[in-house]
Amino acid sequence: MLPLLLLQGFRVLIDGLHAELARQGHPDVRPVHGFVLQAVGDGCSTVEVGRRLGVTKQAAAKHVETLEALGYVRREADPRDARAR
User: Fold this and answer.
1) Can you spell out the DSSP letters for the chain?
2) Which pLDDT score is estimated for 66?
3) Burial 11-39 (b: 16+ CB within 10 A, else e)
4) Whole-model pTM?
5) Run means of pLDDT, 10 residues per run, the chain, 85 residues
């Protein structure tokens, strides 16, 4: 019972946060975006984002592309490895 109550409390907090973000002009931000932004940190490759999140490179790329389209991240070529972004 306690884990369900904790989960419900967490969900209420996250829903409130996203309602406030929408009021402040960020209606497209989703809970998963917070995890992706934490994984990106101050910059890393999409492959590294996938490793940090425990998801495939394709899933990481999809989320990073979404955040890039929304203007929250910018992808650039890695000067050390032309294949990485």
Assistant:
1) -HHHHHHHHHHHHHHHHHHHHHHTT-TT--HHHHHHHHHHTT---HHHHHHHHT--HHHHHHHHHHHHHHTS-----BTTBTT--
2) 95
3) eeeeeeebeebeeeeeeebeeebeebbeb
4) 0.77
5) 93 92 93 92 90 95 95 86 71
Domain ranges of the chain: 2-70
**What crossing angle do the helices spanning 46-53 and 57-70 adopt, rounded to 10°?**
110
3-state secondary structure 26-38: CCCCCHHHHHHHH
